[in-house]
Amino acid sequence: MAESASYTGSRKLIQIDVSSDSVCPWCFVGKKNLDKAIEASKDQYNFEIHWRPFFLDPSAPKDGVSKKEFYRQKYGNRYEGMFARMSEIFKGLGLEFDTAGLTGNSLDSHRLIHYTGKQAPDKQHKLVEELFIGYFTQGKFIGDREFLVETAKKVGIEGAEEFLSDPNNGLTEVKEELAKYSRNITGVPNYTINGKVKLSGAQPPETFQSAFKAASA
Q1: Fewer CB within 10 A of the terminal residue: the chain, N end or C end?
Q2: Rounded Cα gap, residues 196 and 139, in angstroms
Q3: Which long-range contacts (CB under 8 A, 24 or more apart) does 186-189 make?
């Protein structure tokens, strides 16, 4: 995915591979911080961002289950503190962390992200943003076909409904990207910048800016 910016010969190219899961709140926080770093550095660099799949819970049910119940079973009473912490972090970003709605398997969202990257690379980054907004702030279910198709249309991607209707479409590619980019990591978000500088976690914008400098040296 090429971040929407004019390409000039005087700017160095920064290529970023982001391993992420659509149900990972820290991945959304990391994206917000990455976007701030890109905005602050856009006069120095051109950016290409590619979103790669990762599954926090590959066994998550395809049919939606209550977010609160899912995390209560997974983390016990700790989940309430986790939700409270994320609410404060999201508030700092000007967002409301919505704990309502359903969660579940994120495979179809990764298939859609891959499809968008092939159809319109410059729209993949925006698609990921809209998926995060829907899931984390609007109570949308990441496995809901209608939500995925509407999100694709919102960013100008056509053909998503037909693509997603066949569960085999994009499946091999998602597995291949998972093996290539996310095989040796244990958590997300995870960033590889120009193939040589690696960052993990929702780093602050300043850390990304330092990584851009190091990766372009």
Answers
A1: C
A2: 37
A3: 188/19, 188/20, 188/21, 188/24, 188/26, 188/27, 188/54, 188/56, 189/18, 189/19, 189/20, 189/24, 189/26, 189/27, 189/30, 189/31
pTM of the predicted model as reported, rounded to 2 decimal places: 0.94
Radius of gyration of the chain (CA): 17
Give dist(CA 194, CA 102) in Å, integer.
36
Q: Give the three-class secondary structure for 192.
A: strand
Write the DSSP symbol of residue 197: E
Question: Is 194 strand, coil or helix?
Answer: coil
* pLDDT, tens only, 12-35: 999 999 999 999 999 999 999 999
Query: CA–CA separation, 31 vs 8, rounded Å?
Result: 24
**CA atoms lying within 13 Å on the CB side of residue 156:** 9
Per-residue pLDDT at 9 exceeds 70? no
